[in-house]
Amino acid sequence: MAVPPARRGRRGRRAALAAAALAVVLPMLSGTVPADAAPGDSGRMDKLNKQIAQLDKEYGGDLAQLKDAQWAAKQAIKKADSLRGQLEASRTLAARLAANQYMSGGQDPGITIVAAGDPSELLNTMSLASHVAQNQSARVQQITKLVADQEKARQLALAKITDLQKNLTDLKSRKAQVKKLIKKYKPESPSVGMGSVTPRMMHVKQVIDSEFGPFPTIGCYRGGADAQDHATGTACDFMESSGGVSPTAARNANGDQVANYAIAHASELGIKYIIWQQRIYDMRSPGWRGMSDRGGITANHFDHVHISVF
User: Fold this and answer.
1) pLDDT for position 112
2) Which residue did the predictor score with more confidence, 77 or 303?
3) Of the segments 73-87, 137-151, 242-256, which one has the largest average pLDDT value?
4) How many CB atoms sit inside 10 A of residue 36's CB?
5) How many Å apart are CA 50 and CA 177, to the nearest integer?
6) How far is 305 from 286, CA to CA, in rounded Å?
7) Cβ(269)–Cβ(309) under 8 Å?
């Protein structure tokens, strides 16, 4: 049975559409997407975690400086792994769509309905091919961005792991000094009648409050997964504001004085470390050091001075 001229014309236009679309799309799917970035070094991180756990026992507990670096490294690895998963999923989808498009004669699945009609009544061949090309270009751009983001996240993760290793090495080199501090300040038990803090922490609280109080509040004992020294009664937070807002200039100055006083009198008071304004000063590894951004005024210690004792 002879094919009507009109139908032959539509088939010809579809064939032209397929050829034009593939001519534009295929170069995009070949050679323009960078190679995969290598996965995060979780094995190296696991080894560091074991060393930190051991050092935490030997060095009097709550190595906040190390744990901050550890947290930052874990977050960076988590982000890199998440982006790698998105990248793999996007590439799989792009490959599947490309295969389907090839098998369907070059038509993008998203415009099959449009192509099924008479192209002359909807879009001409080149505009339809341009639509296909734009869709594929967007997919390629998405994948390319994911590759760049994943590589950036991986490099950040490696940098954080390197920082963690440096902090660990530094603390290990101070083992003799740290053991002297631990021997000097023997561990104490929290006292229920003293708000569940140790006698040493209670003394520090009273001294700081006497010298620089009154404070909006002073928070000491608390439980929870992130309580750290607070859970053992060996830490207090001296608030310079309340409600999660930034302190005034005067209260910031007071916080500076509290932190400086705690450092200057750390030896006589048995202070282990101070955290203030996203920085930590650990007597086991002296000197102010920056901490990771935890995403808030209180979490980053901009509204309170944290003091931990041995």
Assistant:
1) 46
2) 303
3) 242-256
4) 13
5) 22
6) 17
7) yes
* CA 57/CA 88 separation, integer angstroms: 41
Tell me the one-letter amino acid at 129. Answer: A
Per residue in 175-197, pLDDT (tens digit) is: 777 777 777 887 788 877 688 99
- 19 to 22, 51, 112, 182: CA distances (angstroms): 5, 61, 15, 77
Query: What is d(CA 90, CA 138) in angstroms, rounded to the nearest whole number?
Result: 12
Spatial distance between the Cα atoms of 20 and 24, rounded to a whole number of angstroms: 6
Pinpoint the alpha helices (H) of the chain: 5-29, 42-58, 64-103, 112-116, 119-122, 125-173, 175-184, 199-212, 249-264, 266-269
Q: 309 - beta bridge partners? A: 271
Longest pairwise C-alpha distance within the chain: 105
Q: Is the pLDDT of residue 305 over 50?
A: yes
Show the tokens assigned to 87: 């990248």
Kindly list the domain boundaries of the chain, sorted by start residue. 5-173, 182-309
The encoded tokens of residue 109 equal 């699945």
Helix (H, G, I), strand (E, B) or coil at 218: strand
